[in-house]
Amino acid sequence: MTAYTAQTVLTELPPAVQDAVAATRARVAALHAELPANGLVVWTAGNVSERVPGADLFVIKPSGVSYAELAPELMVVCTLEGDKIADGTPDALSPSSDTAAHAYVYRHMAEVGGVVHTHSSYATAWSARREPIPCVLTMIADEFGGDIPIGPFALIGDDSIGRGIVDTLRATGGRAVLMANHGPFTVGPDGHAAVKAAVMVEEVARTVHLARELGPLVAIDAADIAALNDRYQNVYGQR
Ligand SMILES: O=C(CO)[C@@H](O)[C@H](O)COP(=O)(O)O
């Protein structure tokens, strides 16, 4: 595959790649609207990215721009090293401050096509306690196949967050991690699936918190968790 760099010019790429980038930008812009719509973010505090099909590139929002302004043409195109290419947006328009973390995930998890990060309230509260969300709901078994784990504490700015996400997801086999004292990161085969996982993380974080207020939690047997997850991933919905 082509080696893309910060010097890559989008308009000089093959038409098929430009078309794939345009379609990805449209999807990522629309998916960002799902974050406020589902109550997952305040102000600009969350981001969605998606891998460009057929190219070692991904699309992510610009940093600190309000969700209402996130039109497809403002979505930033990055290499898998996290460098912005000459994508037609102003040079001063920086990609999300979490770009390095998203890029690390794409470089190390070929099966991942979408990444989402939010600071949604209940999930982030569990992050603040560095406490995994136990698999005590069928919804958790369905979507996550087990407890939602805690990742390490990591500072923003280098590969630390990405490494923490990948190491934790590899160890647990899930699609969500609560980074310690930070918040949830979710992944999926595409951006839509990663956004869905972010919505589900927040919902189960809230429900399990409420359940715990009522009394002790009751575990689900491991075999039942596996059966629920298999049915949901392979039978549920439209095939
Ligand atoms: O946690 C942080 C920054 O500390 C980020 O997740 C922001 O909350 C969203 O940043 P941008 O995507 O707008 O750069």
UniProtKB/TrEMBL annotation:
Keywords: Metal-binding, Zinc. Pfam families: Aldolase_II (PF00596). It comes from the Bacteria. It is an enzyme of class 5 (isomerase). GO terms for biological process: pentose catabolic process. The keyword tRNA-binding does not apply. The keyword Protease does not apply. One of its GO terms (molecular function) is metal ion binding. GO terms for cellular component: cytosol. Residues 26-209 form the Class II aldolase/adducin N-terminal domain. Transmembrane segments: none annotated. It catalyses: L-ribulose 5-phosphate = D-xylulose 5-phosphate. SMART domains: Aldolase_II. Gene3D superfamilies: Class II aldolase/adducin N-terminal domain (3.40.225.10). Its cofactor is Zn(2+). Coiled coil: none annotated. Its EC number is 5.1.3.4. Belongs to the aldolase class II family. AraD/FucA subfamily. This is L-ribulose-5-phosphate 4-epimerase. It comes from Propioniciclava coleopterorum.
